[in-house]
């Protein structure tokens, strides 16, 4: 890869600073991955049994990690067996072997740092139910941090250190590689816009800050890493040198190690490699395909080795052992059915999970693809972009957990974002004003979503959901993120929860035959009490009342799997579970975003200025 130019350094600096700026706290997805990172770095194994159950110790900031063996652990002289829990709170012991007398079932959702895990019966070990690529990439950074902390005598089980270490592991993997991906995106965008230096800059900044690539650049999830791997594959294939083609295969293969679904896209790239020059009458480049395949072989052998070590077979995957309650017995692989038009509408245009609602600028990306096809400029590339985006869209529309849990949009589409954003160079050349306006709206949405909670819980679970309301009517920004940022409470949903509660109480009073005047006074008193409890931030009766803005609202730590599992609302631990760097100057304040806007904003402005200067020089050149 050639050295960074001045423009590329600014791209890297502006984006990496933004991705590193936010510590998003804990949650099932990243907690399971971080547990595997800790297990590899601290114990030299993949099983996460010793990083699942944490307990606070009275008077000490050091958390107690309780070892788990065969899905059982001992606490206060009693043996507890971990159990899956369904929606009716029925227990299903993970270890189905007969239990010893006195062993009690314990709900995993209340005790473990994550529920995104799987249990291997014949080894008695737990593993994340995620592909291991993200943990592999986070391991070097965390290992270095861990070694430094050991030399300094810092306990990795201090509640604050655990959170900082998870943030650093994310920054040194997801954040770093996401920023490098933005540089590759910029290089590719320049290839697609050789005559206009500003369009690639605008497209790159829009991709980095105006799509879900921003919030997922701040989380230890696989989506940005998969997107980066696939983007690197595209970049290296186009170089067509021996080393680049092998690297393309390595990147494509590792994309599949990070996200199993991406294995299909590995084939797409192989087809693109073979056919991209067929319109020019060139013969099929079988040698290039062989070099690409050679690169894929390494990651393939890696995942086979991982499966052999963890599951006893090179062809078993983490998802084979996940919570059986997640599986659909009638679906392919227990997770997929025929694509749903309803789900397709939700993940495309709805305010709940709509890609084009939350990042409307990507509509202009569709326009760019149409232009490439119609004017036959980059036909092979347009077809590849359509194939990749279409594939991930169909998979998402077929998935039984299409919404992705706590998330800021259709997160399963993130790996396809670069291929929908690259054609933005066309839109920024031909529809600059309109595309810039759409980009501004998109950047605003993504910044608010990232600054408040990149694991937005709206309409998923019972925290911020009304039983009678359809999913598609929820608005991630309008109902949750913006009210938290502007008013420090998710008032639209709180008001609905309050009114729903009052309506149920009114029905009960009417059933009791209470006189109308007395019933009204009772309801008024109840409403007053409920509003006072919300103002105090109490977790009961509305858990959502304990979520307070304006920024970094997630109170879940890396050591727990539920809200306030170990520490009470308003405690030092819950208040600092998620933070941004500006909060060291302005705690829990909107002003905390000022350094981000100044640093990344200034770098972006300088980038645009330099690009405009290059554009002026091209115009002035004879």
Helicity range: 40-55%
Shape: globular
Mean pLDDT across the residues is 93
- How many discrete domains? 4
Got a strand count? 10
Major sheet attributes: 4 strands, mixed
Number of helices, where a helix is a run of at least 4 consecutive DSSP H or I residues: 23
The residue ranges in which pLDDT falls below 50 over 5 or more consecutive positions are none
Distance between the termini: 32 Å
Estimated radius of gyration: 25 Å
Strand content: 5-15%
Structural class: alpha+beta
Topology:
Layout: H1 6-20, E1 22-23, H2 28-43, E2 53-57, E3 60-66, E4 72-75, E5 78-85, E6 91-93, E7 104-107, H3 108-111, E8 117-120, E9 125-128, H4 133-152, H5 159-192, H6 198-209, H7 213-216, H8 223-239, H9 242-258, H10 263-275, H11 286-311, H12 341-348, H13 355-358, H14 362-375, H15 379-398, H16 417-421, H17 424-430, H18 432-452, H19 476-487, H20 491-511, H21 516-535, H22 572-575, E10 579-580, H23 594-620
Parallel strand pairs: 5-7
Antiparallel strand pairs: 1-10, 2-3, 4-5, 5-6, 8-9
Structure description:
This protein has 622 residues and is α+β, with helices and mostly antiparallel strands. The protein has 4 domains: 1-48 and 130-221 and 555-622, no CATH class; 222-317, no CATH class; 328-482, no CATH class; 491-546. Helices cover 55% and strands 7% of the residues. The chain contains 23 helices and 10 strands. The protein has helices at 6-20, 28-43, 108-111, 133-152, 159-192, 198-209, 213-216, 223-239, 242-258, 263-275, 286-311, 341-348, 355-358, 362-375, 379-398, 417-421, 424-430, 432-452, 476-487, 491-511, 516-535, 572-575, 594-620, and strands spanning 22-23, 53-57, 60-66, 72-75, 78-85, 91-93, 104-107, 117-120, 125-128, 579-580. The strands form 4 sheets. Strands 4, 5, 6 and 7 form a 4-stranded mixed β-sheet that branches. It has a two-stranded antiparallel ribbon with strand order 1-10. Helix 14 packs across helix 15. The longest helix is centred in the N-terminal third of the chain and has 34 residues, at 159-192.
